[in-house]
User: Fold Citrate synthase from Marichromatium purpuratum 984.
Amino acid sequence: TGLIALDPGYANTGSCRSAITSIDGERGILRYRGIPIEQFEHSPNFVEVAWLLIFGHLPNAREYADFSAELTACANLDEGMKHHFEGFPRAAPPMAILSAMINALSCFHPELFELEDEQRFRAAAAGLISRIRTIAAYAYRHSIGRPYIYPHPEQRYVPNFLHMMFSDPYAEYVCEPLVRDAINLVLLLHADHEQNCSTSTVRMVGSSQANLFAACAAGVCALWGPLHGGANVAVLRMLEEIHQGRITPEQYVRLAKDRDSKVRLMGFGHRVYKQFDPRAQILARVAERLLAQLGRRDPLLDIARRLEEIAREDPYFVERQLYPNVDFYSGIILRAVGIPTNMFTVMFAMGRLPGWIAHWWEQAGAGGRIARPRQLYVGPESLDYVPMDERG
Ligand code: CMC
Assistant:
């Protein structure tokens, strides 16, 4: 079998060629199809970015209008899917529901399996991007025991999502432009990040030629963990714990440095960024701006700032090049808008979906080999089977 190179965590293994997103970790630069993400800060439009990532260029006015119309047209879930929500306990983790329901789309839209041409793929991509938000909102409504709110036939992507989350039959939620822009920005800053754990999962599942829904459902599961997308929930819990006075920021940082504690400073550190994570810098600015515009203060933002300050001066974090990542400040924004903590990772998944779709499609087009890593076997060389009654 020849010599196998061992690379735990794939820190030095390139798994594919990709033209979607580039990261310069040394200089803290992230580009979508060549465009630095800072350039999206003042005209945040998640749908436009989704198109860019998937189809490779910014949409022109007609492409954008058509795609937006397509998203609006397919926002409804098949009524049959609603029965599935009923079966989940109220306290079910929304990420479990999200993954199950995305997979269930395979059952309700088999026509989107045969993706032999770009038009069919576009319909599948639009259907998925549109419906993930309906699924996310329904998962939330189910968890609070409120009726599902159908997608609005006219509203745009983000206002429509917030409508499904927060409207009631007798009281329609009105989305302020600053809230719409903040959520658009949160979503688009999560939209792709090259070969991260969930995207690599999507590509791996897709490499067996499994369908788009199955691959993205697997992506949701990979994202769920606290070292990946689940970190945004862990950050909020950490900030709350400090806010409730159970531990001080200084004590928390001390604990995070202690290997035996198994505690990490959540929202800190990144495999690729070694100076700063540009997404975190933008999100910190947006969090400040949004709270100021809403005329509110959030003590958790002060705590986050304090933690960052302590860590920046601590040799442990400096030497290991650990800086705030995308999950450190995003929760402050989501919270300000009324998104409950247990939905944070679902929001990450909604944001990351265009990236997953773009990678699935890129890989399908490249027609590569099935992903199949090797291993270094370290178990016993050879043993004999022992019948049950002869075992000790
Ligand atoms: N707090 C304390 N120590 C840390 C942290 C942290 N947040 N992150 C890394 N370290 C230490 C780690 O203990 C190790 O120390 P040593 O060299 O003494 O053994 C060193 O820094 C390198 O860490 P690593 O675990 O080998 O780094 P990695 O590239 O494998 O992991 C990471 C990257 C993001 C999983 C990790 O930094 C981490 O666990 N961070 C906290 C969780 C988090 O915020 N995840 C979100 C990642 S960004 C967006 C996303 O993907 O969702």
Notes: The chain has a mean pLDDT of 95. The chain has 16 helices and three strands. Residues 242 and 251 are 9 Å apart (CA to CA).
